[in-house]
UniProtKB/TrEMBL annotation:
Pfam families: AMP-binding, AMP-binding_C_3. The keyword Metal-binding does not apply. Keywords: Phenylpropanoid metabolism. Transmembrane segments: none annotated. One of its GO terms (biological process) is phenylpropanoid metabolic process. Residues 55-352 form the AMP-dependent synthetase/ligase domain. Pathway: Phytoalexin biosynthesis; 3,4',5-trihydroxystilbene biosynthesis; 3,4',5-trihydroxystilbene from trans-4-coumarate: step 1/2. The keyword Repressor does not apply. InterPro entries: AMP-bd_C_sf (IPR045851), AMP-binding (IPR020459), AMP-binding_CS (IPR020845), AMP-dep_synth/lig_dom (IPR000873), ANL_N_sf (IPR042099), Chloroplast_AMP-bd_Enzymes (IPR052987). This is Acyl-CoA synthetase.
Length: 531
């Protein structure tokens, strides 16, 4: 590599010396050095040691090179945002910001020495950084993996905790279902029946434990609450033996394949409801969390004692969260949807050399505008006795809101999350800004589309590829099925063959789709959809 770039260095930069992080100097082509010295890493360490010894021999030098103690408000690192909401900005995180995470995440993840974490996040991401600091501080073990090696590493290392983004849990969910569907007809039927029973059991369990989300500020009557509780308790008691049998016969095999004996930690994006419920049904706890690079990053997370599905849990210690009217900044009561703001020792010092952006993000009272829309659950909605009040529910980003030409506002994330329940859809971006109706850009799962087409006799059993028109028809049926509970339905569909990837610049390192870039890339095709 050195030899390949040496000429460029020589002609465009005043190179003083070269340091080899590994390898030997003898491996370099002598002609390429062009007269400047080359050091190995070991030689640099030795030079630094000698330089320090020489300095310490001089009283004047000791005074000149003395260092002040690090202050907790000093910047510890610069982490650049992914750029999903504009140009990347350098987030200045202080030692206090990072220490807040280390000292307070234990209540969410009660790790003990001997626990093993498996992670596949980019090491420079704020989510991964905070996890690493926390893991090593508590004397636990961390194993790094990749998308390619995830399945094998889960089986091999049997982690107590998996740290990842929602897309990984969606991939695991799809893989488990695919494995179930590949069994014989009898085994497949039994597994599917057990899954339905377990989901019904968990639904009843959430009701009698008071962990069903509702925006309603009005406390239900005592009689209604008692009847609901009795009904749910009865259903759960009937289904519990069957659920336990399912754990022994079916779910134990899944557990032996993926480990995750304590919990999966999900963050960096929105966790789909169907994935959340699936893992709950097979008795794998998923703790959904939320944060931003600007908050070092964790603001809130679901704890094991208050793991309320559909929420991101409560704020972690020493963090304040409020929901405000986006226009008036008036604080809204629990149950009212608005812009989520956060304040506490985790909030960044600001954006590097960007005071204007800093002022836009953090007000004079220290409140960070997250840009996310959500609401705080009233105390009575999820069980006062379990002290789970104050959980936060997110419903999309303010900047993602699509405004139709009819004046109606649509949160695309709700539709996208619902649509991802379909095995035929690999990726989806809902569109429709300034149009009369919504559309969608979809990357289909070609294998599943072909299987679905054969099952429904859209094509014969010998066909190896489904036409574009027939694929669109199948996807429309799937969208109607999975998004029937959403406020808006999807109209025209744009099929895309190539998946959105990090390399193509359409995914962030935490695998969130960059909407603006996708829309810009397919602008012409999108325009043609609405002709």
């Amino acid at each position: 590599m050195y030899n390949r770039i040496a000429d460029t260095f020589g002609s465009h930069a005043a190179v003083r010396f070269v340091i080899l992080l590994w390898g030997e100097k003898s491996s370099l082509v002598t002609d390429a050095r062009q007269g400047y010295p080359v050091y190995t890493y070991k030689e640099i360490i030795e030079l630094g040691h000698k330089s320090r010894v020489d300095l310490l021999d001089s009283e004047d030098a000791r005074k000149q090179y003395s260092y002040e103690a690090i202050n907790s408000d000093d910047v510890a690192t610069l982490v650049y945002t992914s750029g999903t909401t504009g140009n990347p900005k350098g987030v200045m995180l202080t030692h206090k910001n990072l220490l807040h995470q280390i000292l307070n995440l234990w209540e969410i993840v009660p790790a003990v020495p001997g626990d093993r974490f498996l992670s596949m996040l980019p090491p420079w991401h704020a989510y991964e950084r905070a996890c690493e600091y926390f893991i090593f501080t508590h004397g636990t073990e961390q194993v790094y993996t990749t998308v390619k090696n995830l399945k094998e590493d889960l089986r091999r290392y049997q982690p107590h905790y998996l740290i990842s983004v929602p897309l990984v849990y969606e991939t695991l969910y799809s893989g488990i279902l695919k494995q179930i569907n590949s069994n014989s007809a009898a085994r497949k039927l039994i597994a599917q029946l057990f899954l339905r029973i377990s989901m019904a059991y968990m639904e009843a369990k959430r009701i009698y434990e008071g962990k069903c989300l509702t925006k309603d500020m009005k406390q239900p009557s005592y009689i209604v609450s008692l009847l609901d509780w009795l009904w749910a308790r009865t259903i759960a008691a009937i289904l519990l033996p069957l659920h336990m049998l399912a754990k022994k016969i079916v779910y134990s095999k899944i557990h032996s394949g993926i480990g995750i004996s304590k919990a999966g930690i999900s963050g960096g994006g929105s966790l789909s409801s169907h994935v959340d419920k699936f893992f709950e049904a097979i008795d794998i706890k998923i703790q959904n969390g939320y944060g931003l690079t600007e908050s070092a990053p964790v603001i809130a997370a679901r704890s094991l004692t208050c793991n309320v599905l559909g929420s991101i849990g409560r704020p972690i210690r020493h963090v304040e969260v409020k929901v405000v009217n986006s226009e008036t900044d008036e604080v809204l009561p629990p149950g009212s949807k608005g812009t989520v703001k956060a304040r506490g020792p985790l909030i960044m010092k600001g954006y590097y050399k960007n005071p204007v952006a800093t002022k836009q993000a953090i007000d004079e009272n220290g409140w960070l505008n997250t840009g996310d829309l959500g609401w705080i659950v009233p105390d009575h909605s999820i069980g006062r006795s379990r002290n789970c009040g104050g959980a936060i529910v997110l419903e999309g980003r303010a900047k993602d809101t699509i405004v139709l030409s009819t004046g109606e506002n649509v949160e695309p994330s709700e539709i996208e999350e619902a649509a991802m329940g379909s095995s035929l859809i690999q990726q989806i971006v809902v569109i429709g800004q300034d149009q009369r109706r919504l559309g969608a850009i979809i990357v289909p799962n070609k294998e599943e589309v072909l299987l679905a087409a054969k099952r429904s006799a859209v094509v014969d059993s010998e066909t190896t590829e489904v036409s574009k028109e027939k694929t669109v028809g199948l996807l429309h049926d799937e969208l109607r099925k999975w998004t029937s509970g959403c406020s808006f339905q999807v109209g025209p569909i744009l099929l895309v063959d190539q998946p959105f990837t990090i390399d193509s610049g359409l995914l962030t390192p935490t695998m969130k789709i960059k909407r603006d870039r996708v829309a810009a890339l397919y602008k012409e095709q999108i325009d043609n959809l609405y002709i």
